[in-house]
Amino acid sequence: MSHTRDLDQTQSHKTLLELARNPFALNKADSLTKQRLSSLICQTDLLALHYAFEHVNEPLLQAFQELTDELKLDEQYQAMSHGEAINQVQGWTDDPVAVLHQLTRGFPEDQSVLKKERALIEGEKRRMKQFLADHPQFTTMIQIGIGGSELGPKAMFRALSAYKQPNRDLRFLSNVDPDHAIDVLQGIDWRHTLVAVVSKSGSTLETKTNEAWVRAQLETAGCNTREHIVSITTPASLLDDNNKYLTSFYMLPSVGGRFSSSSAVGELALRFALGNDVVDDFMAGAKAMDIQCRLTDVRRNPALLAALLNIWNHVYLGINNLAILPYTQALDDFVLHLQQCVMESNGKSINRVGKKLGYSTSAILWGSPGTNSQHSYFQQLHQGTTRTSTCFVGFKNPQNERASNAAHVALNNNLIAQMVALACGRKSDNPNHNFDGNRPSRLIMADRLDGRTVGALLSLFENQIAYEGFILNLNSFDQEGVQLGKKLAQALEPNQDALRAQLGPLQDVLLDAKHVFLGD
Amino acid sequence: MSHTRDLDQTQSHKTLLELARNPFALNKADSLTKQRLSSLICQTDLLALHYAFEHVNEPLLQAFQELTDELKLDEQYQAMSHGEAINQVQGWTDDPVAVLHQLTRGFPEDQSVLKKERALIEGEKRRMKQFLADHPQFTTMIQIGIGGSELGPKAMFRALSAYKQPNRDLRFLSNVDPDHAIDVLQGIDWRHTLVAVVSKSGSTLETKTNEAWVRAQLETAGCNTREHIVSITTPASLLDDNNKYLTSFYMLPSVGGRFSSSSAVGELALRFALGNDVVDDFMAGAKAMDIQCRLTDVRRNPALLAALLNIWNHVYLGINNLAILPYTQALDDFVLHLQQCVMESNGKSINRVGKKLGYSTSAILWGSPGTNSQHSYFQQLHQGTTRTSTCFVGFKNPQNERASNAAHVALNNNLIAQMVALACGRKSDNPNHNFDGNRPSRLIMADRLDGRTVGALLSLFENQIAYEGFILNLNSFDQEGVQLGKKLAQALEPNQDALRAQLGPLQDVLLDAKHVFLGD
Questions:
Q1: Which residue, among A477, A478, A496, has the nearest Cα to A205 in the 3D structure?
Q2: pLDDT of residue B3
Q3: Which of A257, A472, B15, B330 has its CA 20 to 30 A from that of B410?
């Protein structure tokens, strides 16, 4: 990794700063020509990234390519795919590890790479299929997990629930909020319920709490708990215990929680609910996109291009937030999953050797499906003072064969109209009817939201995050920023005297706050 | 309204700019004393706003009070409550109207104010109760509407669904996405289903499309559609038609969609699902908070104080986004509702006479429930470069009597720990374990999430939005920014030649974009 350097230490940085003084304007009469619209497209087998509505021109694309070459991003991508221990801050991380979520869908294709890890993944895939075939009595599944163990699998399931198998009910139990548990478990038939407890270490507070609650419910219902509960964990963890679990499915320690949708963490639940064909398509779509995202030509690699566009908008044009706007209700949870992936990965402020970075890193990622969002916050997108860059996601066809075609046409008409309105604006003498325009957006368009395109979308965003991290020169794969809050919460539990002492004066604020907030 | 002026034209503006050069630091050893924590609390009957973890000190609070007095915010609040036509941009709005959502819960108390409107509201309340009592055969209700006709009612229902009446199923159908309609209507027993179509004018595309779809389903199921469908609309609208609807319930034209949760728009569905006692509590809680928010003392009026804090963080300290973080899963939709209310109301850039404003107006509002969010984007909140201000919401007790007390204690311990961690940070030699702290937050704490506190929360945020608009000197109650996109979408429908011609060159970009994006 010796060739990594901070973005503001690159040659290309000066070019980008210069170009940012006069970015391409979207709201002039001849800005958006048909020629431009037809050429600024990154087309792949499963989806197209349209970027004519971004502040992009030919010199900028050249600068993107120069930066890509200068930072040897192809080598960095390969280092990740081939299992180098890139998850580290050099000199500060005790135990550097590899980043192997791509391997869960069979990338890289070269079977001689990462043989041992590949064998584990493939073995677990076979075991999961067999397990589900052997246990047809389970018609409901509850996945207990939080963060990456919930958001990703839940988002993939929600995206594809139009293809759900009949008589299969999949629920997710995550929050330590006890009202949430009661709500999720309503009307469960425990005799036909499979529970999967998901945690790498087995020490996550929320997951432990919810597992205990579910075990109590199973017992009350007269069930033998061991016959109903499996774990998904790393070998030799607290959850790797045949006395307590019917079986354990293993995940690699080198697959991060937020990148585990295509690992056993997502796979068991998705195979249970959607069946093997849809999940196999999902894996194939993700793998195909992993292959595409290896390309070094920025115009042909959608993850790399999107990463560069994000950095352009944020670091150079100062737009510190990105709204993801899918025009399908089925991707509502997908936005929340991306929010985690992006902000937990790149919401950092030090580089890969622990030095403070001199530029802004990750934007705020937010958003929700259209057309509903048009009736919510689009007022601000069009006429507000805070600038937002937007990523629309659309599909040429609906998921259901019996869906109204007229409604789907109306849906896409709205998507297209919004992009045009944001970019072009419209002059009016009435200041309340005036739209300045010049607000950037991009569009990811695919044929239909199915297993293959969901896999491709997931891979596209995962790889975009990795490329953003490479370019920003930070480690996208740890999450040290969540530790302090956890420790403080533990200190508020009884019998944690040692921890309390270690926290020093913080402890006083904490206890005072608890007393004042809760009055106890 | 002659006393309104732009914020940067006030006397207090200079004081605030001066104070912003050296805001109160939260991360010094003696910053957060017990005395501070115990005194910076705005306590009301139903909830407390704790603001010791904001960049606030005594001189700032004095400046807040001076600004409040200078802008005569009490008179502006009264002008709204008493029905002055404040929904206008002077000289540019054709038909200025009043802003009467507070009246839907009986505020102001003085019965001689707004007698006609009050009589209509009270009459419709009686009719709704009677209608539901007369039609016990309905066990499922589908509310068809979008934007304010969906988000608010859905959020209130979700917040209170722990108190749902047995054998009542309430669903919301909003998006024109046809897959969404199929998903929402799964497993409906049409014979026992009541449908409410909600639209002020009856001309909303999505609502018309979904109504037609639902009518077709009812007919296929052999039902007489008129016997199953009611409308909630304004008198003499397209939906005010006794031939098509079993009955129509009226809303005031002067209640905006996003402020209509406590009007008939929310009330019918909530009374159906939750029963009259919970809804009466909800109304009482909202009214009590409306009364509290009339106070001119910034330290005793939580809506005014929160509005001033938002403007302080955003306009003066440059933090352009606010995360709402409720520590209860039941408020997940409430955040989305607030996102609409805040961003559609104050995402503007002109003042109340149509002049461009010289400062930033509404921040990006986003967020989701903890502890789940801790496992998602909190990494960025703690160690990212983009600053976020946060509003935590907590409850001393769970909703369900059989909820695990230990889990609820853990939930609140996490909330408190996060606020302390954000504010205090923690020094470490390892830069990856270092937390700078000094990140502001506030906390709204109530006893339990029930009808009364949900009403109070809703009113608190609605009034906060109104105060922010008053201070920023903009009209919070229109939404002209959503019109252009709608017109363009209409132009993509067939047989809209006149509209196409009117749109001029924009039309070419639109048609080209449609061709390129969809290939047709």
A1: A496
A2: 61
A3: A257
Specify the 3-state DSSP secondary structure of B109: coil
Q: Does B329 touch chain A (CB under 8 A)?
A: yes
Task: Give phi and psi for B412, each to the nearest 5.
Answer: -70, -35
DSSP lists the bridge partners of residue A198 as A232
Contact B245, B229 (CB under 8 A): yes
B372 contacts in chain A (CB < 8 Å):
146-147, 150-151, 174-175
Name residues whose C-beta falls within 8 Å of residue B220's C-beta, 6 or more positions apart in sequence.
none
Q: Do A32 and B513 touch (CB under 8 A)?
A: yes
Write the single-letter amino acid at B264. A
Q: DSSP character for B316? A: I
**Structural domains in chain A plus CATH codes:** 7-94+292-472 (3.40.50.10490), 111-280 (3.40.50.10490), 480-518 (no CATH)
Nearest residue to B458 via CA among B252, B270, B308 = B270
Task: Examine the pLDDT at A126 and tell me if it is beyond 80.
Answer: yes
- Residues B510 and B502 sit within 8 Å (Cβ to Cβ): no
- Of the partner residues A177, A377, A488, the one whose CB lies closest to the CB of residue B343: A377
Nearest 5 degrees, angle CA B460-CA B463-CA B466? 155
Residue pair A505/B420 in contact (Cβ under 8 Å)? The answer is: no
Q: Is the separation of the CB atoms in A310 and A476 below 8 Å?
A: no
Binding-face residues of A in 262-301 toward B, CB within 8 A: none
Query: Is any Cβ of chain A less than 8 angstroms from the Cβ of B437?
Result: no
Percent share of chain A, pLDDT over 70? 99
DSSP labels, B402-443: TS-HHHHHHHHHHHHHHHHHHHH-B--SSGGG-B-----EEE
Q: Is A385 helix (H, G, I), strand (E, B) or coil?
A: coil
Q: What is the mean pLDDT of residues B285-298?
A: 98
Rounded Cα gap, residues B464 and A215, in angstroms: 44
